[in-house]
Design a protein that fits this description.
heterodimer, A: 60s Ribosomal Protein L30, Chain: A, 5-stranded mixed sheet, 2 helices, about 35% strand, globular, B: alpha+beta, Chemotaxis protein chec, 8-stranded antiparallel sheet, 5 helices, about 25% strand
């Protein structure tokens, strides 16, 4: 089964299942994996910092979304110290200057690294930045991450 | 989530604004290319983030997109979006030589940006005339990529609450294109109240 992860959403799955999120631009897909339990987690992060707000899904922000996705995995039986992360997205889709909202991709990536560091999760692969959109799918059987883009087809992390 | 409830009067007003703005934009486009441009009835909705790209064929559909931010009394994002073939047809009205296939030359992208620019400026200036509110468009920016990846720039705004966006959507149809071109105006939360007030239809509260 393919578990669909929407924008500002996070899901966990295991064994034969995969987790997929579509059309990451400045958003960052955080793919988490416990190779022993074969449990995966995927979060579609839109902004760096929830800044005290409680009016939005936890997975919308890097600082709340990463711990939330880890908790979902632990509820399925994943063990924190075995979990590693792969990242994709965080692009700057439009070239331009003087507009802070254009820089949200790089800021998201930075915030995701920070949040993972705070949870002692190592990033073992990343395809982030640049100027194109990505669709990703995490396979829970082996933790492979498929990264597809309109520009360069499919690559694997 | 209470901020998200919009009533029928507000919806009607915003639809009328989309109607007026897009009609002027369509006229501007028609004058530019010397061909008739039709407009369809616009809609206004609170749309979950995941569904914003539905009218474009879904999150992964590759689209040609012109994006501007709006500043002033009303702030928000504006997008002029269409399929790659539809964009090629439009560009061919201005440039004699258009690259076949899905890629765009720099010149083609700037032609598209300029058309988006003129239409968006016309859209906004009709709203300025109507409301006497200030609205300034930014420099237009262009991207050709997955629909959700490009529209996300308007959704990844700190001002937006939850995972819904207020979308004022209008479609126009230009000559030989088999698909519609889309205008998305995403006003930041609170903008609808300022518009209502400016038109004498509500209080500042």
């Amino acid at each position: 089964m393919i578990v669909r992860v929407g924008m500002a959403d996070a899901q966990a799955a295991q064994t034969e299942d995969s987790l997929r999120t579509l059309g990451l631009g400045s958003c960052v897909g955080v793919a988490l994996y416990d190779p022993v339990a074969k449990i995966g987690g995927l979060a579609h992060i839109m902004l760096p910092d929830h800044a005290g707000r409680e009016d939005a899904p936890l997975a919308k922000f890097a600082d709340t979304g990463v711990p939330f996705a880890l908790t979902l995995m632990e509820q399925l039986g994943a063990v924190r110290r075995r979990i590693t992360a792969k990242l994709a997205g965080g692009a700057q889709m439009f070239a331009g200057t003087g507009n802070d909202s254009l820089r949200v991709g790089p800021r998201n990536v930075e915030a995701v690294y920070k949040a993972l560091g705070a949870s002692s999760i190592a990033v073992i692969a990343a395809d982030v930045g640049d100027h194109y959109g990505r669709t990703i799918e995490l396979f829970c059987t082996d933790g492979r991450l498929s990264v597809r883009s309109a520009r360069s087809g499919e690559t694997w992390l | 989530m209470s901020e998200f409830v919009i009533n029928q009067a507000t919806t009607d007003l915003l639809r009328e604004i989309g109607n007026i703005g897009a009609a002027h934009a369509a006229t501007a486009l028609s004058q530019m290319i010397g061909e008739p441009v039709n407009m369809r009835v616009p809609w206004v909705e609170l749309v979950p983030f995941d569904d914003v790209t539905a009218v474009l064929g879904g999150p992964e559909q590759v689209v040609a997109c012109v994006y501007l931010t709006v500043r002033g009394d009303i702030t928000g994002s504006m997008f002029f979006v269409q399929s790659v073939p539809a964009a090629k047809i439009l560009i061919s009205e201005l440039l004699s030589d258009v690259t076949p296939g899905d890629s765009f030359s720099e010149l083609e992208l700037s032609a598209l940006a300029e058309m988006g620019n003129i239409m968006s400026a016309t859209y906004l200036s009709s709203l300025i005339d109507l409301t006497n509110l200030q609205m300034q468009p930014s420099v237009p920016m262009v991207a050709v990529d997955m629909a959700q990846a490009v529209l996300a720039v308007g959704l990844s705004q700190d001002a937006l609450v939850g995972n819904y966006a207020l979308v004022i959507h209008a479609t126009i149809h230009h000559l030989r294109a088999s698909e519609d071109a889309h205008f998305f105006l995403l006003p930041d939360p609170g903008a609808e109240r300022r518009l209502l007030t400016a038109l004498g239809m509500g209080s500042a509260q």
